[in-house]
Each structure stands twice: as structure tokens, then as C-alpha cells.
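Record type: ASSEMBLY
Status: queued
Input:
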Amino acid sequence: MDWFETIKRTFLDFDAMWQVLPQMLGTGLRNTLIISVAATALGLVLGMVVAMMGISTSRWLRIPARIYTDVFRGLPAILTILLIGQGFASFSQSIFGPSPYPLGILALSLIASAYIGEIFRAGILGVDRGQLEACRALGMSYPRAMRLVVVPQGVRRVLPALVNQFIAIVKDSSLVYFLGLLVSERELFRVGQDAAVLTGNLSPLVLAGLFYMVITVPLTHLVNYFDNRFRTGRRPVAPTSGLKEVNELDDAASPLVYGENT
Amino acid sequence: MSIAPAMSTSAPVYHGSSLDLVGLSMAYGSFDVVRDVTVHVPAGTTTCVIGPSGSGKSTLLRGINRLHEPKSGDVLIAGESTLGVHPDQLRRRIGLVFQHFNLFPDHTALENVALAPRKVKGIPKAEALEIARRRLAEVGLAERADHRPRDLSGGQQQRVAIARALAMEPEVMLFDEVTSALDPELVKGVLNLMAALGRRGMTMVVVTHEMNFARKVADQVVFMDEGEVVESGPPAQLFDSPRSRRLQRFLSEVL
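Status: finished
Output:
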């Protein structure tokens, strides 16, 4: 039973977890959510721009979008974060002050936007071409037709993929610690790691892991639930006879459909 | 169906404009799809375009409202050239109804009809919804205003699509095989609606495979094949005494 005790002490030391819990909640969870939500918001905006460029008929928009996507999807996240976070540090300092958050968030959102751009592009291209045609035939401009009709439909069908992307960002947000964080700036991973180093026990990191899962697992299931509901719908689908509709038309008190046989 | 008393008091009256296609040619890349088509559609009349698949009928309609830009030739509405008009402006004056309805699936029937008046014409929401309600009532769907397209039958969806086009108060209506995707028992309802539109002064160009409709409702029938107008004239002339071999052949296959 010796090894079992060892494992339990190493990973599941509840006292060590209990001690770090206030920091996990107050500092770690809070900062992880701030970084992730901000990076996602910015990533969604950039991603939509990249997607619109990617489906453009102009190659001068398409090719830059392609290159952008290839670069930021092709690089390891840690490399992008370090290059941006350190490369522009002095520039950022003069605008935002010493916090590494602005550049960390920017780097994460650049990475995310490369993926999100592809997600949006696939969703928008999946919308039946007739939708755009119908809008244009009614006199809508291309941008208005996209904004009012095509993009909302495209985005709705890729909601699950977007949630997956948010989950990826939550996990990648731990990499921001490479840019150096003040005590109050630490996110979940860093809080856990500091406590682990301090106590020589891995339990605080396990607790950090639990917090990540508390964020990500419910989201995954939520999205599956919505996905199923969108797919199957939940209306009553009793079949109606086509003849009923014919009767209805015959009874309609409209000047256009009323009687007057052809 | 019984013959009903006329309800002229509440009947909407449309003010269709004349439509002229003058030497219209269209191409997909280097492939000529429509060649030198000239058709005169007097105001308030119905012209049916018939012909085998691949004859360029649908492309011709898309050339009229410039969903597909013509290669050469001109389109005149009310006698005026539209080539210099911005397509978005032109399309406000021309309604197009599609084979597959193309309703907006996340909008109710009412919102489908109200969207363009609101967003394109800038009519205030309440007023646009009122217009939409009236248009839906005209096509017999007042009761279905809050249904989404997937809760409507094909025939109902197509009537919503017609109401949607009418809501922009077009001068010309184009119909692109609008009953081809419908269950057979629902076809007549849509065709009757179109016939009523024609009687009330709308100028219509109807691409169709419904020969009975063309014979009874059209003022003029245009037979196209391989991108050209092979023969045109009053329906009785084309259907009862076709002159060209190609039209004789086509009619023998479809009638």
C-alpha cells in the first residue's frame, strides 16, 4: 500500500489544495478567464476579417488571408507568444504599461483568428448560394446581404467549432506565463505551479487542472446539446395532407388567390 | 374550384412597366449561353419562356436583373435603358422568384417579406411589417405569418417568396421555374396566384415547363433553344401551329 499512499500524497494532497484554493479562485481563475475571453473576442473579430478576405473574389485579399492563416496555424503557440510578447514589449510598455497581458492576449488572438477564420469561412461557404442570390435579387448590396443573411446562418452552423476554439484558447492561455507575470497577474497554471514548487507537491497543479476542466467540460457538453437541438429541431411534425392546403387556398379570402380559375 | 365573385374593391392593382430585351447576349467564360435575344414585353402582360434544359432560359432571367452581367445588348424598362443603372438600384424594380424558393430559414414568413423593404428601402420597421402582413394576406398566408420556412409546405414557401418579391413593389416580375420543385397538388395554387398577378397588371416573364399555364395565361410565348429565340408569338400560334422543326420536336416531347 506504500506506493498508493505516495501517489495520493503527490497528486491528491487535499491540505495543499485547500491552501491554494483562495488564490486559484481569486487570482488564477479570474485571470485565465480574462485572458481567454479577451483573446477570443479579438480572435472572433480578426477571424471574421480573415474569413471575409478569404472568400473574396479579389486575389489581393485572398492571398494575404491565406498567408496569414498558414503562418499562424503553422507556428507553435509558444513561439508566436514569445516573439510577439518580447518583440513588441517596449512598444507595448509605452502604451499599456508593464503588464504582459496586452501582448499575450494579442498573440493568442492572432493564433486563434487563423483557426477561427477557417471556421467562419467553412461555415459561410456552407450556406446555400441561393441565399445570397435572393438577397441580391431584392436589391441588397453584397456587404449587407452577407451581414444580414449569409453570415448569421454560416456562424450558427459553426458554433460548436467556435466553442472548441474557445476551449483551445483557455488551455493556451497558460502559455502567457512565459512572458513573466506579477503575483497578481498569475493565471491558473502559474498559481498551481508556484504552489507546487513551494510545497514540493503536485497537488496544486492537479487542482489547476480541475479548474481547467470545470471551464471546458461543461462547455463541450453544452455545445453538443445545442448542436443536437439545432439539428433535430423540436417542433411537432405531424404530416399534413397536401389536399388540406389546397382547401385552405380555396377558402382564402384574398383577392389574388380567391377563386377566379385559370 | 368554383368561380368566385370578383372582389375588385380590395384587389391590389399593379403597375407593371414594359420590358425590352434588345440583342441580349450572355456568356459563362468563353461559352455563349444566350445569343442575341430580342423580346418585347408590353406593360402588364405575361410572357412565358419555354424550351429544353440548357437552352439559356434561366440565364436570360438573370441577365435581366443583372445577377449575371450580360456580354452585350440592352435591357429596357419602361423604354429606358438600364445598362447605366447600378444593379442594386435596378433589382429593386425587378422581382425574381426562384425554383428553390430561397427563403431565409431563420426568419419567419413575415420577416422574410419585411426584410428588404426595411433594409433596402429604409422603411420603418412597423410600417414594413404592415406591408408584409398585407402581402402575405394577398397570397393567402395571413395565418402563417409567424411560421418559419421549414414549417411551411413547398407551395406555401413559394407563395411567401412571391410576397417577398412583391413587397418591393416591382415593375416587372421574373419567375424561374417556380413550380418545378413543388408537389403536384400544390402547383395549381401557385400558378393561379401568378395568373391573378398578371390579370392585375403586373408585367411578368415566366420561365416554365407548365405548358397549360403558358397556353392559358401567357400573352406571348417565347421558345428558346441553344441560347437563341427560335420562335415567339401568341400561345395559340406556337402550340397549335409551330413552324420550326425544333419547336415541333420539343412540343411532341412535352405534351
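Annotation: Chain B touches chain A through 62 residues (CB under 8 Å).
Annotation: The radius of gyration of chain B is 18 Å.
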